[in-house]
Amino acid sequence: MGGLFSRYHDEASDKDYYACIIQDATACCSQGIEFELPEGYSYPEDFPEEGGEICVVGVFDTYREGEYTYCTLREGRLVEL
């Protein structure tokens, strides 16, 4: 998937979440899809700047946290544009 890089840090769990923000054809609406990279990636050294263009390849999956189901791209890897 291709889009804009976004990061969210959850203070309560001390966990980072990474997402690719994908805009529709007219750029009026967007959807963020979370992705997970393998061990060895370090933020911010191995990531683009916030809002920078990215392309991520991986396996689409879902997971539950509490009563909510979320989408994620597992086994992700960043690909040069």
What secondary-structure arrangement, pairings included, does this model have?
Elements: E1 2-10, E2 15-23, E3 30-35, E4 53-65, E5 68-78
Parallel strand pairs: 3-5
Antiparallel strand pairs: 1-2, 1-4, 2-3, 4-5
In words, what does this structure look like?
This protein is an all-beta fold and 81 residues long. The protein has one domain (2-78). It contains no helices and 5 strands. The chain has strands at residues 2-10, 15-23, 30-35, 53-65, 68-78. The chain is globular and about 35 Å long. 10% of the residues are buried.
Q: Report the total helices.
A: 0
How many structural domains?
1
* Oligomer classification: single chain
- In the predicted model, the low-confidence regions spanning at least 5 consecutive residues are none
User: Per DSSP, what share of the residues sits in E-state strands of 2 or more residues?
Assistant: over 45%
- According to DSSP, the number of beta strands is 5
Strands ordered across the widest β-sheet: 1-2-3-5-4
What structural category do the secondary elements indicate?
mainly beta
